[in-house]
Amino acid sequence: IGKRFPSWMVNDVNSSGSSFLLDNMVELELINCYECTCIPSLGLLPSLKVLYIVRMENVRRMGHELQLDGAESIRLFPALKTLIVRGMKRLEEWVEVVEDVAAGSQGVIVFPSLKKLLIFDCPLLKTWSTGGFSSHHKLSELWIEQCSNLMAIPGLDGLSALKKFQLRSCNGLTSLPIGLGSCICLQSLEIKGCHGLTSLPSCISLWLLQIEDCPNLNSIPSINGLTSLKRLNLFGCHGLTCLPIGLDSCNSPPQLTIIRCSNLISIFDYNGILRSINVLTIINCENLRRIQTGLGCCSSLQKLEIKDCPNLISIAEDIGKLHSLSSIHTGLGYSISLQKLEIEFCPNLISIPDGIEKLCSLSVLRIADCENIRS
């Protein structure tokens, strides 16, 4: 279609009283329009609910196509519920409302009905300005992936309905907006492959927090106040040297999974971090030497899994007091440095893990008062 869309696809604010060919359009997909250099002005389509903008590789700016001069009050994309922007290889700037235009217009509202926003594979995107998310009060899902030059995410203070936020492969980000903590409905926060990320805000309503391959993240914010947390997954966080505090404040026992955290040397539980854990999984933490957690106080622990920790020397001596423990999966064959293992007073435990015969450094093994062990 050339560098620009045809005139029948373009409408502006000043012609809002007239009929427009696309007024009844509900879903629109702009895909593989390689030659186009700009997005058509679609903000006034009253019925548009789903919009895909995919692989328009010559578009460098979005948002500047809106003609708002003289508009006193306007709702842009009034019915849009789903917006997917993907494969915009040259997109550098996305401005939902141009500042000088917004200043001259009264009551400019953008995406008032938006529920799902997905931005994928926009490697040159540096500037994303929304003027704040105050008008996006219905947004429930936000997904940003492979935007390696994105330096900041707009303030999230207005996202009162946000339930799920996924962030992947955005290496330019060093932090997330503090306003994320005010998203009172946020249940799931998943972050993967953000190598520049060094800190996180606290989000009180989370039930799932998963952080993967963020090597410069040195600490996890306190879990105190996260009463709904059910799962905490930490994968490939090589800068992590200690666990977050406050897991004991959760209403129900959460699951804790730690995988490939190479700088985690010891796990101590001075503050009762693990006393309310339901499932504890530790895998491939190559430098982990000791687990001294006060496990005997973990009255809720039902499953303990430790695998591929070759330098592990000792596990908490009071593991024998875990009356709720029903299974142990240790991958013991990998724990070649383990010297002492005691399992005692675990009435629900029905089996001993395989691999004990491979523990060449084991000097003390005690299994006592576990009356339901079958093998």
Shape: elongated
Task: Note the main sheet.
Answer: 13 strands, parallel
Please give the alpha-carbon distance between the first and last residues. Answer: 71 Å
Strand order of the largest sheet: 1-2-5-8-10-11-12-13-14-15-17-19-21
Helix percent band: under 10%
Structural class: mainly beta
Mean pLDDT: 78
The ordered string of helix (H) and strand (E) elements is EEEEEEHEEEEEEEEEEEEEEEEE
Uncertain regions: pLDDT < 50 for 5+ in a row?
Answer: 99-105
Radius of gyration: 27 Å
- What is the beta-strand fraction? 25-35%
Q: Would you count the extended β strands for me?
A: 23
- Per DSSP, the total helix count is 1
Domain R13L1/DRL21-like LRR repeat region: 2-56
Pfam families: LRR_R13L1-DRL21 (PF25019)
InterPro entries: LRR_dom_sf (IPR032675), LRR_R13L1-DRL21 (IPR056789)
Organism: Rubroshorea leprosula
